[in-house]
Amino acid sequence: MGNLNYAERWEPELLETRIQETLCSPFITTNVRFLDGKTFHFTQMSTSGYKSHSRNGGWNSGSYSQTDVPFTLSHDRDVEFLVDKADVDETNSTASIQNISKVFEQTQASPETDALFFSRVAQKAKATGTYFSSTAASSYTKANVFSRLKSFLSVGKLRRYKADGTMIMYVTSTIMDLLEQSTEFTRKIEMTQIAEGGLGIRTRVTDIDGVTIMEVIDDERYYDSFNFDPENGGFEPSVNTYKKTADTALVTGKTYYTLSGATYTAVASPDVSDIGDYYELVTAAAHKLNVVIATPETTKVVPKISSIYYFAPGSHTKGDGYLYQNRALSDVFTFPNGKDGNVDSIYVDIDTVEYSA
Question: The pTM is what?
Answer without folding.
Answer: 0.82
